[in-house]
Design a protein that fits this description.
Blueprint lengths: L1 E6 L2 E4 L4 E9 L4 E9 L6 E7 L4 E3 L7 E6 L4 E6 L8 E9 L3 E4 L3 E6 L1
Parallel strand pairs: 2-11
Antiparallel strand pairs: 1-3, 3-8, 4-5, 4-9, 5-6, 7-8, 9-10, 9-11
């Protein structure tokens, strides 16, 4: 089993920055793919950014150039640095991990609200 706990959400004005963290515990040695997703009211959950254990990253077109996903293996944590925030970035953000099996895990979600 893998447990994921997000932190770092909150309220920010447009143009500001926030950093989300996702701390993993449990069978973390088996995780090979990590990501951030988000879900706005009335919308489907969508991928924001992904990172593999090899360090390969991918981003949704809507956040390219503004958001950066990274990881700290020593802390078993990955991050989402969000710059130049826009009101349309308002959503609940979820961290996500896949372990060999495959088994998929989700965090509980953290609210990000961007005011205009």
């Amino acid at each position: 089993q893998v447990q994921l706990v997000e932190s770092g959400g909150g309220l920010m004005q447009a143009g500001g920055s926030l950093r989300l963290s996702c701390a993993a515990s449990g069978r973390i040695f088996s995780i090979y793919h990590m990501a951030w997703y988000r879900q706005a009211p009335g919308n489907q959950r969508e991928m924001v950014a992904t990172i593999t254990t090899g360090g390969n990253t991918d981003y949704a077109d809507s956040v390219k150039g503004r958001f950066t996903i990274s990881r700290d293996n020593a802390k078993n944590t990955w991050y989402l640095q969000m710059n130049s925030l826009k009101p349309e970035d308002t959503a609940v953000y979820y961290c996500y991990a896949v372990e060999y099996g495959p088994n998929i895990y989700w965090g509980q979600g953290t609210q990000v609200t961007v005011s205009s």
